[in-house]
Fold:
Amino acid sequence: MSQKPSNPKGTRDFNPLTLKRRRYIIDTIRSVFTSFGFNEIETPSLEKRSTLYQKYGNEGDKFLFNIINSGEKIKKANIKSFENQNYNDFVSSISEKGLRFDLTVPLARYVSQHQNEITFPFKRFQIQNVWRADRPQKGRYQEFTQCDADVIGSKSVLLEFEMLQMFSSVFKRLKLDDVSIRINHRSVLNIIAKQIGINNNFGEFLVILDKIDKIGIDKAKEEIKSKFNNLNDIDKIFGMISQKMSPKKYLNNLKNNFTLEADDILLNELESLSNLIDNDDSLIDIEFDLSLARGLEYYTGLIYEVSSKSNFDIGSLGGGGRYENLTEAFNLKDNSGIGISFGLDRIYHVIEDLGLFPKNIALNNDILVINFGKEYLIKISSLINDLRSNGRNVFVYPDKNKLSKQFTYSDKNNFSYALIYGSSEKDRSSIKLRDLKTGKENEFGFEKLIEHFKK
Structure:
């Protein structure tokens, strides 16, 4: 018995209705991006492995999809590295390219490569697929779509605020009222780590914090205690960081409980952002959260994460943050960036679970032309062309099957109208239009039919 065909693990097929619903979300996001002055670019699905590798931290690098060299190049495989369990060197010897892990590192490569063609600050958005060799589950796939907006070339805190405005605008337009944005700052996390007594392995500290939503804050605290020695005030500090705070409470906690080492720039940035938030009542719920880490290594400043209040299992619906040094990896210095990303697939699941897709997103096929034979279709071919030119979607049934079969097809595919042109219509020099929703039929001359649809 032949094996039933199936998708690769962590990938999906999309039927027509699912695609229409995905495009509803994408069109909403795209319209918000363009309203804030962002322009769209696209980059290749493939990137050089050297572009991707060591940009996401040790955890991120584990999930890169590497593409094996083809042909004679496979002979360059470094077998000794494999035998010595130096797997990164071995993979580098057999793979020169990989599938992009996200859209931010390719953006940094793009900006550095095309810097002489770009006017800074550069505002771009990108809606494309990315690939991660992660364990699939609901809302987490190995191939998925990211919708990103980034600005390269400015450190203004107004951009931090603009990202919050875009998050809010998209989720309000999608009628997702049960979402909130959590905010933190990587410099604040660095201060927390030092105060606890973690002066090295800051990345490992972030990886553990980033798992709090999955394992809980108590387990995260115990994991930190087991991996780091001579810790200070960890119970007190973890009691504090488990709380969600208003912007003012967040600032007061920083000033009263942590040694800020006269970091006026950080405080001024957070105070400016807090004032901007307080004076804009169009934003969705915003909480400051000292436990928010976001695991990707390239973030250096403010970080965001958007979650559903009622569907915690789905994971984050969006995220992002400020990155200062990412373009330096591609020889472009002093070009700070900030960006956000919407998780299309997870947003889809939440909208579907809540029944919030608009009712008019349906497989409403338009006009089905009933096939009485080629000689009749030839007679009305110019009419069909005119209907299409006037914006109607016309499907000509390709085979001269029984009428019952053709009308069964129209029912199953939710057509609105059927055009009927057979021997009796030919004799009367007319064409019959049946409304498939009501069953009502009308007969028209060819020109009158076009006028009817124009109305």
User: Anything to note?
Assistant: The chain has a mean pLDDT of 90.
